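Notes, p. 3: input format for complexes.
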Amino acid sequence: MNKYVVLIQRSIREALRTPEALFPTIFIPLFFLVVNVGQAAEIFPSTSTPFLAGQNYAAFQLPSALLLAASFGTAALYLVEDIEGGYFDKLRAAPIPRTAIVFGRLAAEALKSAAIAIVMVLIALPFGIRIASGPLGFVLLILLTATWAVVFSGFMQLIALKTRSAAATNSAGLIFFPLLFLTPNFVPRPLLTRPMEIAATYNPVTYIMEGMRSLVLHDLEWPAIGRGFAVVAGAGALMVLFSVRSIRRYD
Amino acid sequence: MTYAIEAQQLVKHYTGRGGDVEAVRGVDLHVREGEVFGFLGPNGAGKSTTVRMLTTLMTITSGSARVAGVDVTADPEAARLRIGVALQEAGLDIRQSGRELVILQGRLYGLSPAQAAERANDLLKLVDLDGDADRRIKGYSGGMKRRLDLASALVHRPDVLFLDEPTTGLDPASRLTVWDELRRINDQGTTVFLTTQYLEEADQLCERLAIIDAGLIVAEGTPSELKADLRQRRGLTQEPTLDDVFLEATGRTRERAAGEVQEVHA
Ligand SMILES: Nc1ncnc2c1ncn2[C@@H]1O[C@H](COP(=O)(O)OP(=O)(O)OP(=O)(O)O)[C@@H](O)[C@H]1O
Ligand SMILES: [Mg+2]
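Output follows (517 residues plus magnesium ion):
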């Protein structure tokens, strides 16, 4: 357990020492939030748009921004640097479970993502956004964001272990475009065109987004929240399975 | 007789994007406890591959190996506790300071924070990095990185220490420091398995050595045995050097090696 703690500390130290990599993960999603709201808020005034549940359009967009912030997969890029620089071999030569090398990073990713999500929500509050589900809802919102970040980074780490290439891992990260945009990003699912609605229905990220959105706009709606967490849990189970296999077979 | 390192018919066959290569083709090793053992061979002979197999970093295609009495395939975690390794390319995390890196390493081997800090202090002094210990590794020179890598391989006082070309890229003074340090570590009972391209180093440090060429061991013995053997077989009047032994064992004579050098015209 202590060994996990030192590996987590190291990953956090590394993130803090590379602010150039940390800041964009906060500011790019905020930038999208501002731009998207700036473009579409006039179409959706809070008084006459039922799906906003009385809040402004920024509240509707906040989950997309949180998801984007959680989908950078920086942990995997640090892992590739370890592999390329040989430090990964040093860790593999140490008497620690090999899975600790991979999961230690993910645990740090969870903490980091939770911190970023909290900062983003705090920044959003002065702009009139409310978390309608209350303090428990706020905690769940942060938790959902952080666990998704872990799952996404975990899949990216798999690519890193497989390819051992920064270029390949970086490119694989672009998968977040379809994942995040084939969703009810701008309007709820029933208002999407038919093809988009079908695509969004098959995209698991849709359910995470809807879960987060329900936490922002409504009181605790367990079915929507449950679907969000179920998707993260399912994807997370797959990710853990593949990661364990991949690190055991790493040669 | 118990051996610190015992390998039987080690084979490594690489497949994949790096090409299909039979890097190691049946290597037997018997390194005694407390010995400094030299592992020599030309570039690409299979030295690093052998080291990686013996240190649990790479799967063994066939054959078996025991290090410090532990089968590296059957119980890699137990083996890792007893092994220290500094690979050919120093594996460091450039965002940490030298001190942080060694402390982290100590913690991974089960030292308490206080023990790890104390050990790091000692080791950094030993490799002459105490003045730079709190700088980020990013700013270290190549030789400083090698010395730090060596220090980090020693945190847990391993029974068997593997060093893959530990003095490549070191200045003459640092090289002598590392030699002294290796002798000292060895005096305390640590077995040292050392690959090197410097035959003088092997001559100075190693009690016994093996020469590997194209994945097979082609000569083995103490430096003086190997020299005496060559002298006898060739009927030489003078004592040959270890260079001569190396060139002969790997099928390259001085004359041939010289003949292969061709001038390049612009
Ligand atoms: N990952 C790999 N994939 C394919 N072939 C490899 C790989 N690593 C090493 N080889 C091959 O295995 C052989 C032995 O390599 P190795 O690195 O063990 O040699 P070495 O004796 O350490 O050489 P050097 O003195 O240059 O360090 C070489 O022919 C090399 O091309
Ligand atoms: Mg080598």
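The interface with chain A takes residues 55-59, 77-78, 80-81, 83, 85, 87, 89-96, 100, 104-105, 107-110, 136, 152 of chain B (CB under 8 Å).
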